[in-house]
Amino acid sequence: MGPMSVREDPQAQPVRPTTEDSVAAAGSELIGGPVGRRALLGTSWWTPVRIIALVAIGMFALGMVQKLPCYNGGWFYGATAQYTHACYSDIPHLYNGRGFANDLVPYFNRIPDSVSGGMEYLEYPVLTGLLMEVASWLTPHGGDLQSREQVYWLANTALLMACTAVIAVCVSRTHRRRPWDALLVALAPAFALTATINWDLLAVALTAAAMLMWSRSRPLAAGVLLGLATAAKLYPVLLLGPLLVLCLRAGRWRAFWAATGGAAASWLVVNVPVMITTQGGGLHIREGWKQFYTFSEERPVDFGSLWLIISQRTGNPMDDVNTYAMILMLLACAGVAALALCAPRRPRFAQLAFLVIAAFVLTNKVYSPQYVLWLIPLAALARPRWRDFLVWQACEVMYFLGIWMYLAYTNSGDQHRGLPPEGYQLATALHFAGTLFLCAMVVRDALVPDRDPVRRDGSDDPSGGVLDRAPDAFVLGEARRTAQYEGAALTDWGTGRK
């Protein structure tokens, strides 16, 4: 068979969104229309992965431009400018506020707390603290504080831009035949708007790399990267839950324990040097290391959460919010586990990963606007449909604007310029509605596999690694009736028989 035969083989060509997604086809008219069936894709330097990476970097740069009003003074002159222009970022504020301007070392030196008036440690996980410290090394210490904060923000954005490129490449390569799905990530408006608010992109990049390794049947490497991601942000450890139930259903315990062991080992390697101190002649947990965990536990109800709406509407301070949030999260995880074990066909890893992280976001006692970054790559892999993705993104952009307008309202004194509490509650409700809508679409795909856009071409679980096309070993409910048939069908597909 010659080269042209290989190109025309549908199993050898990347899936083209314009042939299966009406929104993608309509949007392609802006650049000349859908690609023709005889187009020779991947025959030049402009491969899908490279195009997507460049688009993602371009959108990141546009997000930097959106922060320009604050860069030129909004972070420094007046409390409301950074809110009315929706260009707030934690990065310049924490350069001085967390002691980096004074060469204080995170977790080892206390810093003044402007809220309590006491002395506290840095309240971020260890790898995020390291990224913050590296950016401070790249920031010259001469000149006035404002100029140094601007340079610190630029140093961080350079590091975060590298994380953006990693995310784009990893997502585009996770589903081998669907690289163009990563355009959902690259063009996501909420990604561009929130990328430089905080340091979440480090954890997102490590999580995307972990999912890529898992899709290539390298569970140990996936676990190591997942442990590093958890050392940068807490949420990635939750992905071990979907892997647990999926490996239970497929009987692939070796892969699960390799991933879990790798995650535990890498997390310990990063954290133990900062965690352990020998003060007083014995081993103790360092107070600076514990700050992130104690802060997370003691933090009251905060912006963007269901609990804040309840608190504002009822006047209840929600002192027991940790208990309520934990109960709801456990119930949501039980529902995801039931879906994994009872669905007529084993759900894809990306589907359950999205559902678990979405459950964490929706039940948490705080939802910072940059938390949407956790979900965007998972959403692109779980439900690669432009209509549903854009509906969700529209809700997230409305919330992004809503929180800054609400902060403008609360920080403008008697003038009350901005969005009152009722308006902010509506913006928060839109965020909940959009996320729940996308969750419902993912659940529907899992319950009715024929409607799953990833599986319509005969694929099983492109991000599943050792789970891809694996027969079921343990199922519950209605899935028992089809387990034998599905196992035989997947075995036939794996050997090439139709």
Automatic annotation (TrEMBL):
Lineage: Bacteria, Bacillati, Actinomycetota, Actinomycetes, Kitasatosporales
Keywords from the UniProt entry: Cell membrane, Membrane, Transferase, Transmembrane, Transmembrane helix
Transmembrane helix keyword on record: yes
An annotated Gene Ontology molecular function: hexosyltransferase activity
Compositional bias per record (Basic and acidic residues), positions renumbered to this chain: 1-10
TM region(s), chain numbering: 45-65, 151-171, 183-214, 220-248, 255-276, 323-342, 349-369, 389-409
Main location: membrane
Region Disordered, annotated ranges: 1-20
Ranges in a coiled coil: none
InterPro entries, sorted: GT87, UCP010361
Membrane topology value: Multi-pass membrane protein
Compartmental location: Cell membrane
UniProt protein name: DUF2029 domain-containing protein
Superkingdom as given in the UniProt entry: Bacteria
Family assignment from sequence similarity: Belongs to the glycosyltransferase 87 family.
GO cellular component: plasma membrane
